[in-house]
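call fold(seq) -> tokens
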Amino acid sequence: MIDQKNDFAKRNPIKNQRVRMITGDISTDDIIPARYKHMYTEPTQLAPHLFENRFPEFVSTLQLGDIIVCNGIFGIGSSREQAVSTLLAVGIPMVVAPAFGRIFFRNSWNLGLLAIEADIKGFREGLAVECLINEGRFIAETSLADFYPPSEQMLAVVHAGGRLNYIFNQLPKNPSPKEKEQRII
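ret:
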């Protein structure tokens, strides 16, 4: 589990995020090659291999808080969570694409990565964007794209660092002996 709260989900607007463009449909094996998924268990160990096969120099050019914008379907293929956890480990808080692989999309929200479906026509490499997350809008020099804003609960899950952290935070901090007996884990 990544112990990283995604504070981007709590900020509105999210300002000055640098766009990193990726072209084509992207599989989870493109994000993190399968040969590493069994070698390493920690996302930080996988991080140097992010996009290694498709975009070999990409990871060395990343800055904390960059957002990935893809012009194809992002995250198709495997159901392994390493694709999402590795993106979080390198400091990517958000991925924007016209469509996502179903399991990747679900894993993103469960682990605390903002996965936003939007028309990406106005985005370009290096553009500094502002995201009005609660209103469902990206802005740069002008309005770039609208999207369906995530629900308050989805944003709370992302801010908590994922669904498990969100649920853990909902539990009583010091349960009484009776509550301990009733709790089933």
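Helices lie at 28-31, 34-37, 43-46, 82-89, 102-111, 152-160, 163-170, 177-182.
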